[in-house]
Every structure is written in C-alpha cells, then in structure tokens.
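subagent[fold] <- orchestrator: predict structure for attached chain, return tokens only, no commentary.
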Amino acid sequence: MHHLALYPQCGACTDMIFRHERVVALFGKEDDSSSYLGRTEPFPFPDAARSVASVNGFRLCRFPDCKRCAASPQFMPIHCDCFEVFRKCCGEGVDASARLWTVAAWRSPWRRAPPIYLASETLEADSLRAIADIARLPQLYELPTELLEMVRRYSEHALLWRAISARSLAARVSATSPNPLLTLSLDDILFWERGGELERRDPGRPPLSSSTMQLTIDSDGIRRVERPSPPSPEVFSRGAFAYVVEDQQAIAKLEAQFKDGLLRLVLPRGQPAPAPRIWNTPNPPDMPRCETFMRGATGLSPARLFAVDADHRATGITFFFSAGALFGVHVHVPHAPDATPAFRRFSRARRRTMVWVYLPLAPRHDPLLALGVRRSPAPSSPAILARTQRGAAHGLPDVVIGPYLPGPARDHVVNRAVTGPPITLVYSEPLQGRPIPFFGACVRPAGAAAASRTRPGAPDAPAEPPFAALEPRAHPLGDGAYFARAPLAGVAAAELFYDEGGRFCRGLLLRYRGGARRALGQCRVHVDATARVAEPRGLCHRLETRARGPRRTAYAVEVALRDGAGDHGHRGEEGWSCHRLEGMLNFWFTDVSSFIEIDS
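subagent[fold] -> orchestrator:
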C-alpha cells in the first residue's frame, strides 16, 4: 500500500494543521509530482505517531524520511475549510484544484522539504474586508494595523485568519494565467525574483566571480535566486524569510522547475548527499568552526537551522525539555519577546509534559562568556552551562540549568574573550515531534582564534576556569527532575512567576546589584502572571503536596518575598518557612512539581 506522507502545514493558508482537523490531500503525478493528478476524500489529520488509518487506498503516515513515502506521489494537505474558501473564491474558468496544487507544492523549496513556518505578510485589505463582513465583524478592518496584528497574534490559528489567507490566494491565482513547466539547471540562472524576469547566464561568458549562491525563501516558497558578492552582512532575520546559502559548486547542478511564475528545486533521487541547509540568516556561520553540543542519532536533516548571536538584541533563551530531552530553543529578541509561538508547534500531548528552562541574557551589561552542555556518565540528557562577565566578576556561581546532573560530569563549552565577538548559538527546528537534531555554538571568525579555547574537533576542551560540579542532594522529585540554583545575597529585585491558578510559584527571576540575572524553575517570560519586588529583604516559602495517582505525589510551592521588616501576610499560617536573603536557593522542578530548599 502506498503511503500518504503528511506534514502539519496547510498548503493554502500556510498555518499549522492540528490533530483531528479535517483535511483533504491533493496529490501529483507519481513520477515527478510536477502536475496535479487528484485529491483524496476528507479525513481527520493523524497524530505524529505511526497511523494505521488509510484514505482512498493510501496509508496515512507522518514518519520523517519514510522510504515508502519517498516512493509514493507527493501529497499536499489542505484544511477542508481553506479548500472550500479557495475554490468558491476562484474566478470562473479557473481549475481551482490544479492551480492550488501548484501553489501548495511549490511552497516547498524542493519536493518533500520539511515545512518552514515563516511569518506571513500583512493581511490583504480586500480579503480582510470581505471575510470580516461575512463573519459580521466589520469593525475588524477599521482597526489600526498594530492593533489588528495584536488580535491576530493572540488568535493566530483561528478560522477567520485562515479564510482571509485562502481568499487572498484565490484572488492572486485568478488574476494570473497558468504557465507550462520549464526546467533549467540552477547553474544557468544569474538572477530570478518572483514576479520579475529571469536572467540567464551567457554560456560564452567567463565563469562568475561570486562563489556563493543564495536562495531567499518566504511563506510562498523560493522568492529570489542570486549570486551575492560579497555575501549579505545581515546576521538575523525577523522571521519572514529563510535562506539557502551554499557554494555554487555544491548546488549549481541541481535543476530548477518554473511553473505559474513559481520556482522550486529538484534534488536527484537517491542522492547520498544531504539536502541544502536552510538558515534563518543570509550570513550563516561556517559549520566546521562550530562546536556540536547535541546531535540527533536519527540522521534526519533539520527543517531549518538558526544562528543567533548573543548580542544586544537577545534578552534570553528558553529551552524546551520533555522527558529529559531537548525539543526546542527560542531566542527572545524584540520582535519575538515570548516563546509561545514555538510552544504551540508541539503536539497537545507533548505540551502537557513540556518544561520551560529560561536563561536570561543582558549582553550590554553582562555579556555571555561561555556556553555549553554538561553530560553525566549515566545515560541522560545534557544540562545547559553558561557563564557571564558580571556574574563571574561578582563571584556568582556559573549557570547550570536543565536536567539535574550531580556528581562527576563531562563539560563541553565554547568560550569567548571579553572584547571579542559574541557567541553564536546554532540550533535546529524539531522534526515531527522529535527532539531537535542539532544544538551547538561558535564564535564568529573575526575573533574565533583568540576568543575560543574550544577547538573544532576537541569536544572535551575545558572552560577556563572549569564549571563546578554539583553535589548530590536528596530531593523528592525523582530522577527526571530539572534543577537550578542561585545565591540570595545581593539580590536587588526579584520577579515571581505563577501557575495558572495564581497561587503557586512556577519560577523566580533574580536580578543582582552588579547587573547579573539568574532564573530558577520555569520562568515563562511574557506568558505567566508575575509579581515584581524591588529590594526584597527576605524570602518565605511553603510546600504543599498533592496526590497524582496511587503512587505519585506532586509538589507545589508558595513563595512570598518580603520587602520590609514588618508583617508579610502569612503570620499564624502553618507550614511557612522564612529566611533572610543569604545562602543558596536550590530549585528542583518538573512539568507538574516544584520544590525549593535554602542552604544557609
């Protein structure tokens, strides 16, 4: 039985497809999928696990790099409601299914490329007005753009926005005529941009001086092909574009397919070489200079690689852990201040066990000097290591967050000089509900030789000075606990992060007088309710236990920060333990429990 390979992205609206949402799948001819062949009956989108369900004689499959899927026709899933909106809004005489197939298939930079979730452009005004009128929300299109985008952000997966996207797509398709398929060698293309003219290389001219080819990708697929000389100096993209930046000898022999004003690449079947890397930046780091902290054992190519400098734009990093494995990374920057969009891409089942581990950054005041991971001799997921300039100068312990790994351990760290370039964090998007395939770091070439004491190919090179080992300590949360610690002395301000009920403490963010910051527990920045206290004088906490099944106990902790010497609100209540701000605060946590202990 042929497999029906599915990725959780709608080919019409480009939004995510969630489990059990009704979809249809358009499919192309089996040989090269360059033309439309048919569509399936509607079916509920399956879970990421292996499925035994089938539709129209095809087995539904979401298993990455499945060999049976590779031998099957290419399928493009479409929300049923998006398909209906698109079909009804297409003009007369338009073969809606065939045109939608081409648009959906050419959104991928090449056949079977994993989906790339990119920010779409501003809503098209005519479609916004038309759909808002149908939904009896005429005031929606009267909102200022900033307010409209805010509403959209807080309801990003709603049918309203998907319908607007589907109608806009139908309008664009109806305004153009279909073109026949044209195939060229990528080496013959000097420049191409969607909606513009194709510039082809003159075979009689000498070879081009530029050795780099750059492909710019947006939510509609490949947007531009060029040979920049020199390469673009931009380091970080705002999320609307992705890039392929490769030596022209590595990809010039690939073929490019043009159809209906769109372009996609054709990778040779059975090619042992990996697909081109897709980056978030047109200026990616040189991968041989980067240290690999974690690499997936599956050998799967990541959907997209991210390279983010820990410079003045980054205010923190959230690491998503589940069952001890790293499933995602979000770098907090001004245009992406919270990690909610990354969290929503996980399945509902995975979200229930997800733990948010936050590493605060203050590059202008407290630059990151070292970043790495710690591995225990016993099989376990690595913990995250970090050292900052002011933290080290003021005698604060190094940051060790993530899975609790006491005792002997092996550290793998990238260091930088105080005056050198920032550390560049390199990581990949997760694939189909699996842990991320790649996580590493490097220092940009301008200062790499002097700034990094960790050489490529030397994974055990130590930090200078080495990170301190954690002493084994008894705690009630078991082997799957996560851990963070920070001193209480010298705290200038603190921020409490609460759970959904607003009573129990989920995390603590401490700011010290020297400018350093430390996070403990789950600090879900710009997501959870918080309370800030300036110049706290003491910390009080109370532990509560709750049964979770016949043999499981969950722990929750209430925390109160005293900002004066008087009564602090729980006098006479049992179970509270109050401390001056001195000693070390130890914080263990899981997806359902929190437990703290203070060393005097």
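orchestrator: received. Logging for downstream: Residues 159-174 form the longest helix (16 residues). The first strand starts at residue 3 and ends at 5.
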